[in-house]
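User: Protein folding is very new to me. Would you mind checking the protein record under this note? It all follows right here:
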Amino acid sequence: MSFIMGSLLVIWCWSWLTAYDDHKAVDILASREADLGVSVYAQFSLSQLFEVQPEAEITKLVLPLYMPDPSKSLLVTLTKEKENIATWRLKNDPKKIKASGIYDIELKLKNPTVLSGNYHINLSGQDITHEDKEKAPRVFVEKDDSKYEPGNYWIADNKKTGDISLQVIERRARWAQFRNDWQQDPLQGAITISSYLLLFLTVLVGPHVLLRRLVRQPSD
């Protein structure tokens, strides 16, 4: 019984340690006030420079947008030194965007992709005319340039002070996260590993002890 329980525990531990969790490789925050959002329309395309460092296995980008009119769409591209990495056409999806409001738009990569270095996310609303600019999607911008020093945003070819609110999500195996925690804070890493070892031992030994108590014969 102990051998079976031990084997099952080892399998479970391996599965748990090799599972993936989401982490933020880039996290640019900004106030979500619709009236202060920057519109994307006509020739007023926007782009944001961001840095992925160290390299990370990216699964998606999350772009907060205010959508005054969900029927208006954007073309979004992810590029590195003019090389196109991914393209998304943000069209009206009645299941996700039913009315005007603020939405976290998930830009998923077809497959997890290892990124490292500097990238641009580019937003184009060329199909939206000047007459419809009040209906154009708006991004949120953090004006304090020191909040995210690796990058900046542009309107067309004009560099601006500040950054577009954006998250870049990486997937990371749990064992890799433990390694990072250990390197950054050995004491906290040791405490975390000890806690999980105690949990694993409890799961391994607990059922065996309980079973022995249940089958123990009463003493004469």
Remarks:
- The radius of gyration is 25 Å.
